[in-house]
Amino acid sequence: MSEVAVSSRRRGGRQARQALRAAPLAEDKRAIQPGLESGNYKVLNDLQIKRIHTAVLDVLENIGLADAIPSCIDVITAAGGVLKDNGRLTFPRALVEDMLVKVNRNVVLYGQNAKHDMEITGSKSYFGTAGAAVHMVDAHTGDYRESTTQDLYDIARMVDKLDNIHFFQRSVVCRDLADPFDMDFNTCYASVSGTTKHVGSSWVEPSHVEKSLEMLHMIAGGEEKWRERPFVSMSNCFVVPPLKFAEDACKCLEVSVRGGMPVLLLSAGQAGATSPASLAGSVVQEVAEVLAGLVYVNAIQPGAPAIFGTWPFVSDLRTGAMSGGSGEQALLVAACAQMGRFYDLPTGVPSGMCDSKIPDYQAGAEKGYNHAITGNSGTNLVYESAGMHASLLGMCMESLVLDNDTIGSVLRTVRGIDVNEDTLSIEAIRQVCEEGPGHYLGSDQTLSVMETEYFYPETSDRSSPNEWIEKERPTSLSKATDIVRETMNSHFPRHITDEMDQKIRAEFDIKLPRDLMTAKQKTMI
After folding, report:
1. pLDDT tens-digit series, residues 416-429
2. C-alpha–C-alpha distance, residues 202 and 364, integer Å
3. Is the pTM of this model over 0.85?
């Protein structure tokens, strides 16, 4: 075959592929989608899991937790817990095993839009945000400034447009709000106003939770409808590692459980500081603390929706500083995810808390290997997976977009390789080899699988050097900047109607002006 004919065929194949890519594909046909089955990476073998489990039961039965509030002591001792003379509340093995039978293993985290509902069962896996960064990062200058309520809302609506970030948990602190109630309430308001995806938030006082529930009932159309589809969950640090209850958080937890709000039971010990420096010991303490929380929740209300939130962090033992982007971090969360699968619990762990201060090579590397290991570990929910820098001190808008692509590529590894009669490709091989043209660029099979088998990052550049130069040398960051600018100038969610928003503002002190939720007052750079 002549060189001209081959070139013509290749151009025809390229045109066919470009035409196919222009046509939207149904979500269930895409190469990646929410809720892919995970669990192909196992850092622990079966014997190690059993040894950790035995150690966890030992810690709970013989050491227990300190500083339980009276209501916690009442419900747990009534269920079979023991308050020791030294004031520590212990959890006999039989109590733990009994409560593990009662837990809800079919949790659904609802969105305000049903297309974003997440079934937290088995090893279905989803990625989302989280954190409590106190700074926004300028991706171009590296400058850090304090985060605001406006930033929180903007992050929520950015996440609303990113397909591979499946839920939104508040990722910055509203530093412009000094009053704790204002901060808690307006954090919830800005989050649910910015996205129709499931929202996670946190509160410091039970009365703040109660007032927020009143607002959420209004948005849902009444308390009954809220309880049918609770679209906000509570992130609750009910323990202060090592092995102590947190008084105010426990009070908030009780309001959440009784109010029908799913709760992320979060333990965040830092290996070498507030949990053992040995990785196995850190896992033991994390699992013990969160299992104590599950006993607590199910003693209040059996089957209440709760997430097994083992969030082990890592110290750089040379300095004591947190190292959220380390390889040890990836191993810890993967081990905790495996323990969640061992108990068959709805499980959430963190990943993506890079140590780098800006979106650079270090950030990409740290997020890449952490996400690849965590995403394949079998966890249901991956928190803090997008936008975070400086071990959770900074949040960057452009990094949300970059991380959305990284998560997409990781999800492709989670899905794995489909092996069946069609994908084995015997007929396609025969046609190309026996009938020509000697390549697969324009074959029917290539066109049929290019969208269902392959993921294409928006911010990556795969062109040749010459083509890249002709396009004025775009970078991943420049592409992300363009996407952020376009989204911030055009995407203003209206799932909460103006009429409902007016009712909320008439009832509560909303700090975010409505006009800043309809048009940007500054040009995105």
Report:
1. 999 999 999 999 99
2. 28
3. yes
